[in-house]
Amino acid sequence: MEMFLFVLLLLFAILVSNLLNRFVPVVSVPLIQIGLGILIALIPLGFELDLNPELFLVMFIAPLLFNDGKRTDKKALWKLRIPILLLALGLVFATVFVIGYFVNWLIPTIPLAAAFALAAALAPTDAVAVSSLSGRIHLPKRIMSLLEGESLINDASGLVSFQFAIAAMVTGTFSLLNASWSFLVIAIGGAVVGIILSLLKFQLLKWVRGLGMEDVTFHMLIEILTPFLIYLAAEEIHVSGILAVVAAGIMHAIERKKADPQLMKLSVVSKSTWSVIIFVLNGLVFLILGTQLPSIIRVVWEDSGISNVQVLSYIVLITLALIILRYVWVSSFWLFNWKFRNGGKKEQKPSIRASVLTSLSGVRGAVTLATALSIPFFLDNGDLFPQRALIIFIASGVILLTLLIATFILPILARDNEVDLGNDRAERATQIWILRKVLRELHEQITPENKAATESVIQQYRRRIHELQQGFNGQNRRMSREEKAKRLEILTWQHEYTQKLLSDGEIKTETAYRYESFLNMKESALKQKFKTKIKTLIGFLKRVLRIVLHPKRFKETRNQIKAAHPKQSEAFKEIRFVRAENEKMVIRKLKAQMNDANMDLISPLITEHKIILERIVQDQTRPTSKEKFEAKVREVELAGMQFERDEIQALFEEGKISRDLARDLRQNLNLLETYTIEEELV
User: Fold this and answer.
1) For a pLDDT cut of 70, what percent of the chain falls above it?
2) CA 473, CA 600: separation in Å to the nearest integer?
């Protein structure tokens, strides 16, 4: 029962951490969750969580890395493969060697092999911690892709280095040749196992679907179990479970692109389910990390044989050494790549600022703590492992310090990269630009067969653009004097143009009179808004009362309208003609008047009249078969969403929008796509 209540408390703490982050956005969610974890550990619950490192890796790290592998930008991962490998392999081994000797020199009571073990635990950056950066720190895309790729791969090299360092400490023997060969087998073997098991899973699901089993719950359960089974299978044959789940995640991302329409509903459910799972697991990782800190701190803090100030200075010095080594490594590679590979011509010389950002972004997290906690208590000869508590304490301190640097220092240095998050106006302008690009793409795709459906979708995009443009004038949308004056001017144009059509013999007197009556109503609404609303409401109530009190007379009126349908049809056709011609005229005049000074006023009006015009055209061209038309509309909607998604990705890759904005736009788009697909599947 205590365990159940403890889990409930952790889940409640996840909700509280996100709520607190809304009020204190300057503090990152991981730090808040670590703080809440410490508080939970200090509460006398009568239950203490004993963290098993192996269980922690399979329960939390495996599914999180699997999901990261699915979400990683594959093109960026391949494009940056050389720098990623140099960081994930080269820097890890350099860290083990350099920091290991530095720790042994700084703290002589820690033997060299144990110092190498601490350095190996500190070497890998944490994928979960790195992903938490992207939510609030807007790093350049190249740096963020580099960090994500590095954190996905360097766990294997760090853990293998740690295992050999521990083996050397426990047994007193070490072979560089054996260690190198074992690393290759463990790393490559892990990736191969992940790929093979993923392919087998795809074949199994294909066979199951062939039997007619399309149950979404069944398939979703298999997908949730996938990272756990692959990790355990890889570890069972002594290869890297971490690299196995990363490779499996990438394979699932590739397979998803080939998915047939039958898998659309599964894809929708999968995204929703994994979003909840990842939200909970991310929170639990840092909360559990926080719950472990008090017991770790207590052991070292109460040890009279070592000064607390000295221990804190060790943490600061080791963290600085890690950052400096990372800076030197990154700067050397980028400078070498620029000078010798590109001849210093093709690319701009790498800046010091970019190297600093990359160095400070090397956040350590739960993998480091889980690795440190797996240090054995005893050596083979029965002696206690030297300075085990101090090593774990230092690892915990480095985790906290790197998170603090990423939370408070990194945002200041990365602020200049927030090219599109400066204000709501810039974000709206970017969204409008994307939607207009989609409109141009849709116009180019128009054929006689899809003309009506495409125009219907174009109208939806016009409406979205119009809503965004209206947002420039504030949330309450109170009409300014300038806008009211312009709308009244537009009505004057329409009156004059209607009279011109009448004098040219293109419309009848009755049509002109009816349309000008409509314009007069609009003019009255603009000039006397409140009175017009009252009159409209009174007229509506009168009509309702007539229908309720005299239903027979209402039916007779309807029958008379039906009898006069052919004549009414001609009249409506002429009214549509007048409206369409007037809207075209207004659009032409507004475009001629628009300049940089009045763009915020004129542009939304142009969009509004384009929406009206397209609605008129759509009424004329709408096909008689409703089902076929709706099917064609859904087809065009999905094409438009793909255009939109491609444009978002292109802007993101060019560095014109931040990762945050790109993610938000994709989430909104995924939601729209979900509704469209669900309508089709129901």
Assistant:
1) 75
2) 8
